[in-house]
C-alpha cells in the first residue's frame, strides 16, 4: 500500500512539474509574439523619442485593425530591408499629400502638428504637390523633420513591412520618459476624406527598395539572445513581426 501511495505522489508531482513547464513555455511564446522591446538609437523622432530610451512595441494590434494616422510604428525599412525604422504614420492609403517647405497638407487641409518642436521644423528634401498614397501603403515621417530619413526620401511603406506599434517607453526614468506614448489622433481627426477625383497633376508615392537613406535614427531590439541587425519602420504587419527574431536591430 505504501509503495502505491508513494508511486501516486511521485506521478502527481512529475505531472504537475511537466504541466507547469508547458504553461511557462506557452506563456513565454505568447509574450514573444505579442510584444518586443527596442532600444532607441538616434534623434530622428525627437522630442517624442530620445536616444537611449527603451520602448515596448505592440506586435498584435495591427492584426485586428489598420494603422491610424499619428501612430508611431516600427517597420522593415524599404531603403535597407536588413534594418528596422521607427516613424510616425502621417498618411493613409488613398490620401493625397502635399509638402511645401515645412507645411504638410492632407487631402487639401494643412496639418497642425503639436508634437513637432520648433527647432526640429525643417525639410531637407524637395517639396511636392498632390502625391497619392497607394493601397496598402503608408506615408511616414520622423518628428525631427530636420534629421529624418523617411517617406520624403524613399517613398511609402508597405503594410507588410510593419512590425508593430510603439506602445510605451519604460527606461530610463526621468522627465523625458513619457511612459505610455501619447495619442496624436486629435491632430488628424478633422481631416477630410480622400478625394473621389484626383487632381490632374497628381503623382503616386513611390514604393521601392534600394534607395539610400540619409540621417536615420537607429533602434536596437533587446533580448536575451543578444543584438542583431534587422528592423526598420515602414508599414504595419503582424506577419513580418512574427517572422523576425526579437533580437533584430532597427533604425529610426
Automatic annotation (TrEMBL):
Q: Which PANTHER family match?
A: CHLOROPLAST PROCESSING PEPTIDASE, SIGNAL PEPTIDASE I
What does the record give as the organism's lineage? Bacteria, Bacillati, Chloroflexota, Ktedonobacteria, Ktedonobacterales
Q: What class of enzyme is it?
A: hydrolase
Catalysed reaction(s) here are: Cleavage of hydrophobic, N-terminal signal or leader sequences from secreted and periplasmic proteins
Q: Which UniProt keywords apply?
A: Hydrolase, Membrane, Protease, Transmembrane, Transmembrane helix
Report the domain of life of the source organism. Bacteria
Q: Which SUPFAM superfamilies match?
A: LexA/Signal peptidase (SSF51306)
Recall the GO molecular function terms of this protein's record. Answer: serine-type endopeptidase activity; signal peptidase activity
Transmembrane ranges, per UniProt, are 17-35
Name the Pfam families for this protein. Peptidase_S26
Q: Describe its membrane topology.
A: Single-pass type II membrane protein
Q: Can you tell me which residues form the catalytic site?
A: 44, 87
InterPro entries recorded = LexA/Signal_pep-like_sf, Pept_S26A_signal_pept_1, Pept_S26A_signal_pept_1_CS, Pept_S26A_signal_pept_1_Lys-AS, Pept_S26A_signal_pept_1_Ser-AS, Peptidase_S26
| GO BP term, pick one | signal peptide processing
The EC number(s) given in the record are 3.4.21.89
The segment(s) forming the Peptidase S26 domain are 16-171
Its subcellular locations are: Cell membrane; Membrane
> Has UniProt tagged this entry with the keyword Transmembrane helix?
yes
Q: Which family does it belong to?
A: Belongs to the peptidase S26 family.
Gene Ontology CC: one annotated term: plasma membrane
* Organism, scientific name: Tengunoibacter tsumagoiensis
Decide whether keyword rRNA-binding is in the record: no
Instruction: Please state what the protein is called.
Output: Signal peptidase I
Amino acid at each position: 500500500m505504501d509503495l502505491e501511495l508513494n508511486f501516486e505522489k511521485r506521478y502527481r508531482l512529475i505531472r504537475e512539474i511537466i504541466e507547469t513547464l508547458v504553461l511557462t513555455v506557452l506563456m513565454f511564446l505568447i509574450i514573444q509574439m505579442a510584444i518586443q522591446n527596442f532600444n532607441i538609437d538616434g534623434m530622428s523622432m525627437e522630442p517624442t523619442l530620445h536616444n537611449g530610451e527603451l520602448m515596448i512595441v505592440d506586435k498584435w494590434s495591427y492584426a485586428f485593425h489598420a494603422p491610424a494616422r499619428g501612430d508611431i510604428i516600427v517597420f522593415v525599412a524599404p531603403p535597407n530591408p536588413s534594418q528596422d525604422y521607427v516613424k510616425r504614420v502621417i498618411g493613409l492609403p488613398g490620401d493625397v499629400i502635399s509638402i511645401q517647405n515645412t507645411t504638410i497638407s492632407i487631402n487639401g487641409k494643412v496639418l497642425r502638428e503639436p508634437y513637432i518642436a520648433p527647432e526640429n521644423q525643417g525639410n531637407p528634401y524637395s517639396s511636392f504637390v498632390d502625391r497619392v498614397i497607394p493601397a496598402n501603403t503608408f506615408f511616414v515621417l520622423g518628428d525631427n523633420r530636420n534629421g529624418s530619413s523617411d517617406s520624403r526620401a524613399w517613398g511609402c511603406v508597405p503594410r507588410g513591412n510593419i512590425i508593430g506599434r510603439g506602445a510605451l517607453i519604460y527606461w530610463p526614468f526621468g522627465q523625458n520618459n513619457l511612459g505610455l506614448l501619447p495619442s496624436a489622433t486629435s491632430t488628424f481627426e478633422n481631416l477630410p476624406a480622400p478625394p473621389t477625383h484626383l487632381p490632374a497633376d497628381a503623382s503616386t508615392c513611390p514604393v521601392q527598395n534600394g534607395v539610400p537613406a540619409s540621417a536615420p535614427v537607429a533602434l536596437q531590439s533587446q533580448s536575451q539572445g543578444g543584438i542583431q541587425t534587422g528592423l526598420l519602420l515602414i508599414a504595419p504587419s503582424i506577419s513580418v513581426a512574427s517572422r523576425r527574431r526579437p533580437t533584430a536591430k532597427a533604425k529610426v
